[in-house]
Amino acid sequence: MIEHSSKISKQGERTKSHLKQAFIALVNEKGYSHVTVTDMIKRAKYNRTTFYLYYHDKQCLAEELQFEMFARIKEKSISKYEKGKTINITDMGPTSFELTHFIFDNQAFFNLYLKNDTIPGLYKDLPLAIYEVLEESFILSPVNKKDINHAAHKLYMAHGTAGLIMNWIKTGYSLSADEMSQQLINILQSFAKEFSVVSKRSLK
After folding, report:
1. What domain count does the chain have?
2. Same structural domain, 95 and 11
3. What is the distance of C-alpha 166 from the center of its chain?
4. What is the pLDDT of residue 203?
């Protein structure tokens, strides 16, 4: 995934945010392949010159949005935990998973996962981001003597978690963010009793 790191003014950041919001709304309405630069600037109420000041084309905007949201998924998955700490899963509560609240607050973007005609490669991002967090940041202590820290098990956990979240999105967020967090905690308790935080990368 391409990283976009050039620094721009606060006004520029606001402009880019407005263009991304317009893009997300349009993809939800008509599909990625049917969205044009003209559509975006009309929706965001900017001119073509402004768009090309920040982006070469639609794909460039989509890649930047995808990169930013991938990083935010990872950040929100670990933001509640400090490096070196051990967390007893029985002590966790609905507010222990900030990721579910982030998804709930950004429904327009995460609804793009339901589209057949969506940002290319988007479908793989949620499980991949969760897997990278598990692999990079957490050591799990099992409820039995089985090894649950090998890559295959963490990959299984990542896809299972992403699958539950996708089902939540498909049902129109029928559970609150707190209820979804508690459901994930209950599943985690079935095979792990605690976890240690071994790293916490800055994603800013």
Report:
1. 2
2. no
3. 12
4. 38
